[in-house]
Amino acid sequence: MLTLHDYQPSLNGWKARVLLGLLGLPYRTSEVALFQGEARDRGLLKLNPIGAVPVLELEDGRGIAESSAILTYLADGTRFLPPDRYARAKVAQWLSFEQYYIEPTIGSLRFWTLTGRLKLNAGPMVQSRRENAQRALSALERVLGEVEFLVSESLTIADIGVYAYTHRAEDCGFSLTSYPALSVWLARIGDEIGPDYPVVPYTPDAMLT
To answer: Are residues 4 and 192 in contact, defined by beta-carbon separation less than 8 angstroms?
Structure first.
């Protein structure tokens, strides 16, 4: 059986949990106490040299790290990853977009805001990430004014990947009402995913005291 090494509040881990659920794939969860140093224990380092989660451990013990790689592996041969060469490249494009422009901006700002770290990073760093997040949201707004899904005519891992942190942008002060096309897309993807995958709050050990 597959094993997902995970930290439940992680939205990168959330992406993998969503796809595993939509595919109906059985798996075990190995919860990692991220803020107690467990992410760098020797067992996990064998699966992911950087020692981060999520990591998908295959039945034969091999590991796949990074959420985009996990999504691509799981979606191969399913409706969530189109067989067309161009469409697959567009999926890769949007997953890269998420990792370069969404996760480092909205993801970081959300983490800092919800765990009491925002003041520690106040100044040019926060301002730069806010500006880059706004650029990313504006880019999505332009694209989603013309299409219902990012790549094809139905849900793909591109949508799941981009949706994860984007749909929680209000947690760190962004007003999604300023992006009407994006808001419609977020509602559509939320309906496609369904209510069975709640976002888990950060654990007490993540909070800055």
So the answer is: no
Q: Is the peptide bond before 54 cis (omega within 30 degrees of 0)?
A: yes
Q: What is the CATH number of domain 85-193?
A: 1.20.1050.10
Q: For residue range 92-146, what is the model confidence (pLDDT) as tens digits?
A: 999 999 999 999 999 999 999 999 999 888 889 999 999 999 999 999 999 999 9
What's 58's DSSP letter? P
Fold of 2-78: Glutaredoxin (3.40.30)
pLDDT at 204 over 70: yes
Query: Residue range 49-77: average pLDDT?
Result: 96
Tokens, residue 135: 């650029």
Q: For residues 67 and 156, what is the distance between their CA atoms, to the nearest angstrom?
A: 14
Q: Is 87 exposed, middle or buried (0-12, 13-18, 19+ CB in 10 A)?
A: middle
Match 């999520």 to its residue by tokens. Answer: 54
The pairing of beta strand 27-31 with beta strand 55-57: unpaired
Task: Give me the residue label for tokens 């067309």.
Answer: 84
